[in-house]
Design a protein that fits this description.
2 domains, 18% strand, Rossmann fold
């Protein structure tokens, strides 16, 4: 993914600062071969963008152009080679430790493949509750209640918490992934082609669900 023009600065005092800003972001991967084995794959090269709170920004490009890599760098699943990612004016490429941990509670990701992104050995309830445990937000009955709540929100029967991913269709699995992303009440979600692995008949349902969730919870999507 190559460089994009940065948003034009504005002096309109009524406009708020973007909730997410990406400035000249670069991500290279080492590749074998070449002189002294120093070849690199230019996955993301100098990308800049800005997203206002409550907006959806879509990235368009052919398969393999770096869209997924960009999303993973933005949420800090991958380190940036250079450049900056600002979330609420905090540079995510610089923060560490507890501050990064607190910030990550507001940033979640919905993955492209609903079959590969869910642990087949975990129940649906454990999958959705995992972020609550990881961040120490809730446990026990409080966590169970929150899991049931978000399952209802995404259109799943909360009585399914003890079932396993293989018992669900692709569309239902993606709803589980969305529930997992919602359970911490994030403000910003990176959705990595969340319908591309689904049947065409199901894609519109997931898109409509995400639009409804955005309106209900004032979410920002990339």
């Amino acid at each position: 993914m190559s460089a994009q023009a940065a948003p034009t600065p504005t002096t309109d005092p009524t406009l708020k600062s973007p909730i997410v800003r990406v400035e000249d972001l670069v991500k290279h991967f080492p590749a074998g071969g070449g002189l002294l084995g120093r070849n690199v794959v230019h996955a993301v090269d100098g990308v800049s963008l800005a997203i206002q709170a409550g907006e959806t920004l879509g990235l368009v490009g052919e398969s393999g152009c770096g869209k997924s890599t960009l999303g993973r760098v933005v949420v800090r699943l991958l380190p940036a080679t250079s450049g900056h990612v600002y979330f609420k004016d905090t540079d995510l490429t610089k923060v560490r430790g507890e501050k990064l941990r607190r910030t990550r509670q507001e940033i979640q990701m919905i993955f492209q493949d609903p079959y590969a992104s869910l642990n087949p050995r975990m129940t649906v309830g454990d999958i959705v509750a995992e972020p609550l445990r990881n961040f120490g937000v809730a446990k026990g009955r409080k966590a169970e209640k929150r899991v049931q709540e978000v399952m209802r929100v995404v259109g799943l029967n909360p009585n399914f918490v003890n079932r396993y991913p293989h018992e669900f269709s692709g569309g239902q699995r993606q709803r589980i992934g969305i529930a997992r992303a919602l359970v911490l009440n994030p403000t910003f979600i990176v959705a990595d082609e969340p319908v591309s692995a689904l049947d065409v008949s199901i894609q519109a349902q997931i898109v409509n669900l995400m639009e409804d969730l955005q309106e209900k919870f004032q979410l920002t999507f990339l």
